[in-house]
Amino acid sequence: MDRQLLKGHLPVIILGLLAEEPRHGYAIAEELKRRCSSAFELGEGTLYPLLYRLEDKGQIKSKWVRLTNGKERRVYQITPAGKRTIAAHQKDWNRLAEAFRNILGEEWAKA
Amino acid sequence: MDRQLLKGHLPVIILGLLAEEPRHGYAIAEELKRRCSSAFELGEGTLYPLLYRLEDKGQIKSKWVRLTNGKERRVYQITPAGKRTIAAHQKDWNRLAEAFRNILGEEWAKA
DNA sequence: GATACATGGTATGTAATACAAGGTATTGGT
DNA sequence: ACCAATACCTTGTATTACATACCATGTATC
Predict the structure, then answer these.
(1) Is strand D in 7 Å reach of the CB of A73?
(2) A74 contact to strand C (CB, 7 A limit)
(3) Domain layout of chain B by residue ranges
(4) A2-31 pLDDT, tens per residue?
């Protein structure tokens, strides 16, 4: 699909995954592949910068977690601000959908 | 609303308006204001470059039309490729919506 | 000893939109 | 006759998100 369409929507997909439970980067990528591969997949070079941006904006926070085997990985979790962002996005989505219905007709975006 | 969300969707809004009937730039702007102002408005500096891009890609074509008063204005109309783009976008939109439902739950994006 | 997976990172480019400004021509009000 | 508003088109620069491609490291597996 046209990647341009993802702009602005992609962060919310990530936030949605983190709203379910805290996850580290690789787990996010895997989960995305499992659940959305038909729509899109993300390279690491897309995912990590995205996570940094989200953290910069305070919508997620991360901490390094030491595993039993001594390895570390970075686990992200959503913040209240992140949850508000999801809600706001939902509103925007509906406004967009309404604009499309206005212009392309009622039949549009039924399924 | 977050303008990032419009990326990739905006051209389709324009194409939709031109699918109704050929229009010149200003008329497009007016119609948009009338029908979508709650969602967004476009400055001319956003609209015209958008039209140029669409024409470059062959999704619309334009011609100068001389009015009775001797003035000229540029009228755009959609091409078959443009119509195909609308249809493709519709598919992408539904895929996106499905991804959100997958992740944010069935309740999402109902209206 | 090669290959794959798990996990995190950076650097650079591209393309869509935002914003700001400028320009001409007509119309209408005072 | 003048000013303001509206109709209409154009250009240039900045922002920003995402794509692409690449690197590093360790561990399991064949």
Answers:
(1) no
(2) yes
(3) 3-104
(4) 999 999 999 999 999 999 999 999 999 999
A92 is near strand C: CB distance < 7 Å: no
What's B9's DSSP letter?
T
pLDDT tens digits, residue range B19-48? 999 999 999 999 999 998 888 889 999 999
Nucleotides of C under 7 A from a protein CB: 6-12, 15-22, 25-27
Calpha distance A89→A96 (Å, rounded): 10
CATH code assigned to A3-103 = 1.10.10.10
Is the model more confident about A107 or about B76? B76
For B3-104, which CATH class? Answer: mainly alpha
Nearest by CB: A8 against B2, B36, B39: B2
